[in-house]
Structure prediction request, 412 residues.
Amino acid sequence: MLKSSSFLFLILCAARVASLNALDWPEFRGPTGQGISTRTDLPLTWDATKGVAWKSAIPGAGWSSPSLQGGKIFLTTAVKTGNGLSLRALAVNEKDGRILWNNEVIAHEAGAPNIHGKNSHASPTAIASGDRIYVHFGTLGTACLDLDGKVLWRQTGLKYSPVHGSGGSPILVGDALIFSCDGGSNPFVVALHRDTGKILWKTPRETTAKKTFSFSTPLLITVDGKKQVISPGSGAVCAFDPAEGTELWRARYGEGYSVIPRPVFGHGLLFVSSGYDRPVAMAVRPGGKGDVTETHVAWSLTKGAPNTPSMLLAGDELFMVSDGGIGSCLDARTGKTHWQERLGGNYSASPILADGRIYFLNEEGTTVVVKASKEFVKLAENPLGERALSTPAAGDGCLYLRTQGNLFKIKG
Prediction:
């Protein structure tokens, strides 16, 4: 059983999610950006045939996670065209898996950039907001579409030197679409106007790390009534003023680079991981001014820390899984380890929480379900038998899982 304080925290998270739309999952890791669903009717067991409401083939290649709004699922994909790429956005009917539209957003004819074997040219997750869809392809461009797939604007002028491709997704803060551009040199964080795609601000990311490339998705938080955009990069996690792009504070983690996990926030703490080569999981008190490394780091640990999957906060407990499949449950406030267990497989997707259960999807396409508690209780192991790097999305009594080439709707 969850403690009363844990239960209250979950109720507050649930209230925030429900206020948006209980059936929507509009961005990477859902309505709060932290992998929390309010659903109590998600499936527990399935395999490649059992529990599959439908399976839809998705053309091209992409690892963007599903975004869900108004009965439609939005994805991005990249289709090879001779020496170039057709970067595309798709809408899928959530009832039957039918592709409603599949439209080219950006035609990239200069050859396909080199990417990591675990990446794609369409890895950032789309944002669904009202009557607009925002898609991002890193240095290849960013665009806004309407719900019928018509491109309203494109921004292809933000050039930088990507390493291994692009991965971090954007976030919306008021009129600003904010994302990081952490390439091989001169990294920066930028905000575009959501209605026009014009640059609102562009802030160089100051770092002493030798390797400057990273792939994290920012998180919006509020501290003392003021909004902060938390953006991890190589060498440090930084907070920015979303209106002007001014850096507010930073906490360093040495030479950490290729930072991928999205931050998690709760109990007055930010939970981040420092990236390669040896990840360090850290809890940081947001606030202060300038370099707060010596004063605001509450705890840190290395054992079981992830390079790729984001962490997940459930009440008083923080859950994480390493890329090599070691799952951990920690006391969020102190970093004390409650349990560490081998879940099996390798992991890139971030876990999600629903109804006291945590869903861990591994790269081999198997979802391991465990109880969200201080004791390790494995509830199910559900194989699909297809490669999976995308984070699941939760819908109306169902899960949407993207694999290599397919989108599954799993329903109990």
Remarks:
- Residues 4-411 form a domain with the Methylamine Dehydrogenase; Chain H fold (CATH 2.130.10.10).
- The radius of gyration is 20 Å.
- Confidence is low (pLDDT under 50) at residues 1-20.
- The longest strand covers residues 72-81.
